Backbone:
């Protein structure tokens, strides 16, 4: 399973290998969509995709018969460097970067009826190159780049607060 940006037509694409051939589909083609993709498969094998499109963080998933798309965070310049994980209920969790004016690491999660978004770290220009994983409790853990200091950082949710740490200060990492 692969998701990618089709630059010529500015379309988010999905490809799946059947065992003998590649099947490709357009997922979203409204405006310029498909940058900073991240893909996860649910328990049924259906793809879920986070991506940057029309200057927002967006999300798409395959229902088994059609693609459903949503804007997760409509803040200007939200959604770069997105990383997607699904919890035990198949609900999406996304870490991502909001470019100017805030330059923050943000996190979004689907509750089953709405998207909840929050700022995780706003100390300088932080949040590029995110990587998200959920632990056994469903709590998010995020690694990311601190551009201001050139550091590798790590954030985790304790169940009540976000805790951030610097992992490596060895120059620009």
Residues:
């Amino acid at each position: 399973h692969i998701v990618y940006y089709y630059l010529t037509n500015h379309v988010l694409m999905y490809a799946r290998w059947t065992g003998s051939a590649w099947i490709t589909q357009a997922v979203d083609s409204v405006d310029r969509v498909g940058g900073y993709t991240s893909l996860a498969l649910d328990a049924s094998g259906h793809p879920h995709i986070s991506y940057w499109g029309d200057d927002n963080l967006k999300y798409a998933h395959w229902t088994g018969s059609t693609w459903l798309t949503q804007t997760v965070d409509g803040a200007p310049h939200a959604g770069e460097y997105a990383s997607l994980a699904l919890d035990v209920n198949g609900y999406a969790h996304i870490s991502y970067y909001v470019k100017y004016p805030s330059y923050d690491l943000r996190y979004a999660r689907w509750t089953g009826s709405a998207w909840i978004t929050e700022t995780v770290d706003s100390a300088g220009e932080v949040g590029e190159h995110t990587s998200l994983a959920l632990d056994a409790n469903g709590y998010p853990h995020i690694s990311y780049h601190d551009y201001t200091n050139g550091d590798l950082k790590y954030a985790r949710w304790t169940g009540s607060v976000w805790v951030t740490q610097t992992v490596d200060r060895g120059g620009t990492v």
Observations:
- Residues 153 and 166 are 4 Å apart (CA to CA).
- The two ends are 30 Å apart (CA to CA).
- The first strand starts at residue 2 and ends at 6.
- The chain is about 0% helix and 65% strand.
